[in-house]
TrEMBL record:
Family affiliation: Belongs to the NAD synthetase family. In the C-terminal section; belongs to the NAD synthetase family.
Biological or metabolic pathway of the protein: Cofactor biosynthesis; NAD(+) biosynthesis; NAD(+) from deamido-NAD(+) (L-Gln route): step 1/1
Matches recorded under Pfam families: CN_hydrolase (PF00795), NAD_synthase (PF02540)
Organism: Sulfurihydrogenibium azorense (strain DSM 15241 / OCM 825 / Az-Fu1)
Keywords on record: ATP-binding, Ligase, NAD, Nucleotide-binding
UniProt domain CN hydrolase: residue ranges: 4-243
Protein name: Glutamine-dependent NAD(+) synthetase
Positions annotated as active site in the UniProt record: E44 (proton acceptor), K110 (for glutaminase activity), C146 (nucleophile)
Underlying gene: nadE
Binding site for ATP: G322, L323, S324, G325, G326, V327, D328, S329, T429
Functional description taken from the UniProt entry: Catalyzes the ATP-dependent amidation of deamido-NAD to form NAD. Uses L-glutamine as a nitrogen source.
UniProt KW Ligase keyword: yes
Enzyme Commission no: 6.3.5.1
HAMAP family in UniProt: NadE_glutamine_dep
CDD domains named among the record's database cross-references: GAT_Gln-NAD-synth, NAD_synthase
Length: 574
């Protein structure tokens, strides 16, 4: 029985901070060596951070990346390290370096470059066309990168036929609802089909609108999870893999025998023997398996981590939020406290002539429960000054959304003034339902440096509030049961102006996230008049969404990079 000790360095790098990323990798290598690890793998583009986007088009960025992979290489001894970086040959490649004893002994280039949703790798990289097999003491190991593993005809098939026992798959796979389970099921299928053990390491941390969830794990040829790391936290996941057991699986299964009888090795397989002896183990390890969490918990943790990393990685410390006493601002304030600590969150109440006594009470109760510093800045006098100035030019005209939007923009100005004066970043509180139909005011409630719940539908907002209150009750009960209202005129409610949120959100899902036609949505049982009204609002408010702050992606189809619609556009569904 020959076992090899393997580690997955689930780290949170910072895009472009080569010193930080290098030190983080070296720290994890030291931890791994202390545990007598033989091979440690780090995520995709761990050295540069992911995604570096158009930094990749800067020759200086490519060169610095190469300088730092050299620095890393010079510090690797008595362990095999697999790490993501940008390789430069005749072109540039999304690559994995295999490093041993101060040398890059082999390099693998990613073969399948994603070019959908938030991914744009064809813009930057050349596609790889070779495989890398490295051998230690007669046992073989393969390397692949992220997307490579999602295709039916993938490098793992060839690695298995080549006799590999373990395949390392290094990733930068961002979170979306349901994706954690989907990944695990896919890797279980790949391991069972190919009779190999797969070591899957994923990035963790927030990068602009993306959040990488970690959840690195090992899976054996039976499709069983051997060890699994934390979600939304850095972790070093370690497992002892029985190489002889894997070989026995392969000997007994005719599938690989039959494939090998037809297989003709290509010169594209780079085969490397590594002068490395598997360590005798005197240090015991805990082979942990972190249990899967419910989607609602994963989504909440995504929002917390995404906000924390956006604020801290961009050099901010404190945030400010307009507290309305409504469910959206209550959720955003709660997430902010969980992400940054109550001392770094400021709340501002800005009551207008239409703000209810209950809303003020609810906002103050929330602030008390969260223990955040709160300011009350009424807007009534400022609003009246605007009305007085417009009195002549608006003469004879009835009040309408103009006066409503004035109130929202006054509040936006107040928040931005506090931001400018104290260096607090404003958190916008709009949700995906509002962003979809334009139920928001440009330069008003849409102002902010970051929109935490921009990809969260209103019905999900309530679910997240209920989840958070199940941990410790901070959001007042009345916030969760009163009809949502912008309170910009008497007796105003969201659902009276739009549609009941459970109906609105389903229409948004079908039209925005699933690209269903108006006809298909109506056939699904929704009222024709309501569907046409909502679709028209979605189509005509693209210009607003383009001017909104970025926000955390939690669905498979978020506004922005996932869904790119022209503003000037005469194709209409209705």
């Amino acid at each position: 029985m020959r076992k090899i000790r393997v580690a997955l360095g689930q780290i949170n790098p910072i895009v472009g901070d080569f010193d930080y990323n290098l030190q983080k990798i070296l720290d994890y290598i030291k931890k791994a060596k202390d545990l007598q690890v033989d091979i440690i793998a780090f995520p995709e583009l761990a050295l540069t951070g992911y995604p570096p986007e158009d930094l990749i088009l800067k020759p200086s960025f490519i060169e610095k990346n190469l300088q730092y992979i050299k620095k890393l290489t010079e510090n690797v001894e008595d362990i095999v390290v697999i790490v993501g970086f940008i390789d430069k040959k005749e072109d540039i490649y999304n690559a994995a370096a295999i490093i041993h004893n101060k040398n890059i002994i082999a390099t693998y280039h990613k073969q399948f470059l994603p070019n959908y949703g938030v991914f744009d790798e064809n813009r930057y990289f050349q596609k790889g066309n070779g495989l890398t097999v490295f051998e230690i003491e007669g046992y073989k190991f393969g390397v692949s990168i992220c997307e490579d593993i999602w295709y039916p005809e993938n490098p793992i098939n060839t690695y298995a036929v080549e006799g590999c026992e373990v395949i390392f798959n290094i990733n930068a796979s961002p979170y979306s609802e349901g994706k954690v389970k989907k990944r695990e099921e896919l890797l279980k299928v790949r391991s069972r089909d190919n009779l190999v053990s797969i070591a899957y390491v994923n990035l963790v941390g927030g990068q602009d609108e993306l959040v990488f969830d970690g959840n690195s794990f090992f899976v054996n040829p039976n499709g069983e999870i051997l060890g699994k790391g934390e979600s939304f936290k850095e972790d070093l996941v370690v497992a002892d893999i029985d190489l002889d057991e894997i070989f026995r699986y392969q000997l007994k299964d005719n599938r690989l025998k039959n494939l090998r009888s037809e297989y003709r090795r290509s010169d594209k397989v780079n085969y490397i023997k590594v002068d490395y002896q598997i360590k005798e183990k005197t240090v015991n390890i805990e082979q942990k398996i972190v249990l899967d969490k419910p989607d609602i918990e994963n989504t909440y943790n995504t929002l917390v981590l995404g906000l924390r990393d956006y604020i801290t990685k961009n050099g901010f410390k404190k945030v400010v939020i307009g507290l309305s006493g409504g469910v959206d601002s209550s959720l955003v304030a709660t997430i902010a406290v969980d992400a940054l600590g109550n001392e770094n969150v400021k709340g501002v109440l800005m009551p207008s002539p239409y703000t209810s006594k209950e809303s003020i009470e609810d906002a103050l109760e929330l602030a008390k429960n969260l223990n955040i510093e709160t300011f009350i800045i009424p807007i009534t006098n400022i609003f009246q000054t605007y009305l007085d100035e417009f009195k002549e030019i608006f003469k004879g005209l009835k009040p309408d959304t103009t006066e409503e939007n004035l109130q929202a923009r006054i509040r936006g100005n107040i928040l931005m003034a506090l931001s400018n004066k104290f260096g607090w970043i404003v958190l916008a509180t709009g949700n995906k339902s509002e962003m979809s139909v334009g139920y928001s005011t440009l330069y008003g409630d849409m102002v902010g440096g970051f929109a935490v719940i921009k990809d969260v539908l209103k019905t999900k907002v309530y679910q997240l509030c209920e989840y958070r209150n199940s941990i410790s009750k901070v959001i007042p009960d009345r916030v969760l049961i009163k009809p949502p209202s912008a309170e910009l005129r008497p007796n105003q409610t969201d659902e009276a102006e739009l549609a009941p949120y459970h109906i609105l959100d389903e229409i948004i899902k079908m039209y925005v996230e699933q690209d269903c036609s108006v006809e298909e949505i109506i056939k699904a049982g929704f009222d024709e008049k309501t569907v046409k009204k909502i679709v028209k609002l979605i189509d005509t408010n693209e210009y607003k969404r383009r001017q909104s702050p970025i926000g955390i992606k939690i669905t498979e189809r978020a506004f922005g990079k996932d869904r790119r619609m022209p503003i000037t556009n005469r194709f209409k569904e209705i």
